[in-house]
Amino acid sequence: MDVNLAENSENALGEAEAPADVAFAAEPITGVDLPPAPPSGVRDIEAPPEVRTGPPKRLSPSSASTFQQCPKRWKMRYMDRLPDPPGQAALAGTFAHLVLEHLLQESTDQRTIENAKLLARKCWPEIETDKDYVALELDETEARHFRWISWKAIEGLWTLENPQEVVVEATEQLIDAEIEGVPFRGIVDRLDREPDGLVVSDYKSGKAPRPRYVEGRLAQVLLYAAAIANDLGERPRRARLLYLGQRTVEAEVTDEALKIVAADLKTTWSSMTTSCESGEFEANTGPLCGWCPFIAECAEGTAEVRSRLDRGMMRLDAPAVAVVAPLPTQQPA
């Protein structure tokens, strides 16, 4: 499972009325498209709490995605263990996933919006007392907004499917498998049974991708399909991403599709191992430097943000802008 409500550094949910007994009225979130970002606020199931000196024992989709985006960011997150607390959107995604996990474990007749509201209230104390949520120090208005976007993600499942018609084989399925020699581990949100076979389903609360980004997003669930085939002995027929409140993106699980994602995973693992052995981790700079939590520790990223600001090519609400300030573009006239 890759929990994230802010894959594109913004919430994708539109304006709607929030049920008063679960969430509360708040301003809708809007924004512009960004290139696909690596998952944030996810469970790093392959990462030990201590500082690491070598490659991980297992590779998860989130770890692989981070390394592919920027090896230096991966080093600071997974080896140096620098603080990378999830933001509001990522925690809201965690809350939504938790509620939907419990909902789909219910009998089919109990998978209703009303029961989802009850489950949301039941699960809320777990989030409210979480250290990362407490660290956000939200005021009442911000807390109401948090509950609102969480509920809209939960409610968004009904836009995509009728949960009462889903035949669930497993939820939060832990998969350990070897893919092309790479030790792989992941947590599958849902494994469904359809008339023609298994389907891997993964919830996404971020903005649904533009067509040019779809293939990259599907790589995660196709890797899950490959791992399930190796671990359970049955290859899923389809792999899908459920972009809550928006649309479903899916792919047929074919030999060719699995071959491509497995080769990419093997290449990433090889590069990661080489970097760990040499101690050299390249900084891949670009627009996403504006959202890197380690910008203060990265000279290359800082220079990239400054350059993009000077050229008018960086959103001023990007978190890194405040870190590299003061800048001429931010000073009052």
Describe the protein in words:
Among the domains are: 164-277, Lambda Exonuclease, Chain A; 287-330, no CATH class. The chain is an alpha+beta fold and 333 residues long. The N and C termini lie far apart (47 Å). The protein has helices at 61-69, 71-79, 88-104, 113-128, 131-136, 140-155, 157-160, 211-232, 255-278, 299-310, 319-324, and strands at residues 168-179, 182-194, 197-204, 238-243, 247-252. Strand 3 (197-204), helix 8 (211-232) and strand 4 (238-243) form a beta-alpha-beta unit. It has a five-stranded mixed beta sheet, sandwiched between helices.
Features:
globular; Lambda Exonuclease, Chain A; disordered C terminus; disordered N terminus; 333 residues; five-stranded mixed beta sheet; alpha+beta; 11 helices
Summarize, please.
With 333 residues, the protein is an alpha+beta fold. It is built from eleven helices and five strands; from the N terminus they run αααααααβββαββααα. Helix content is 42%, strand content 14%.
List the SSEs and their pairings.
Blueprint: H1 61-69, H2 71-79, H3 88-104, H4 113-128, H5 131-136, H6 140-155, H7 157-160, E1 168-179, E2 182-194, E3 197-204, H8 211-232, E4 238-243, E5 247-252, H9 255-278, H10 299-310, H11 319-324
Parallel strand pairs: 3-4
Antiparallel strand pairs: 1-2, 2-3, 4-5
Structural class, by secondary structure, is alpha+beta
**Percent helix among the residues?**
40-55%
Shape: globular
**C-alpha Rg (nearest Å):** 20 Å
- N-C termini distance: 47 Å
The description of the largest β-sheet is: 5 strands, mixed
Beta-strand content: 5-15%
Please report the number of helical segments. Answer: 11
CATH topology of the domain at 164-277: Lambda Exonuclease, Chain A
The tally of strands reads: 5
CATH architecture level-2 label of the domain at 164-277: Alpha-Beta Complex
Overall average residue pLDDT? 85
Q: H/E series, N to C?
A: HHHHHHHEEEHEEHHH
